[in-house]
Amino acid sequence: MPEQHGQKNFKVVYTIVDRQRDGKKFWLRIGAAFENRDGSMNVLLDAMPTNGQLHIREYRPFEERGTERGTFSERAESMAG
Questions:
Q1: Which of 5, 40, 58, 59 has the most beta carbons within 10 angstroms of its beta carbon?
Q2: Alpha carbon of residue 25 to chain centroid
Q3: What pTM did the predictor assign?
C-alpha cells in the first residue's frame, strides 16, 4: 500500500447534501476509508448519511484544494447528472 508523509494512504468519505437556506450542495466530511492489500476497502464513518449517499475520494491537504477548477457544489451538481 503506498504511503505519503509516513502515513498509510487513505481516502476521505463525504456525503453531499442540499443546503435548505440556498439550495446549494454542501460536502460534509463524515469519515475515512482505507484500502486493503486485496483492493477492498474499510470505511469508518463518524456519522450516517441521511440521504444514503457516500462519496469517497483521495485525501488532499486543505492548501491544495483550491487549485481545481470549479467549486465543490459545481462538481457535485455535475456528478448528480
A1: 59
A2: 13
A3: 0.64
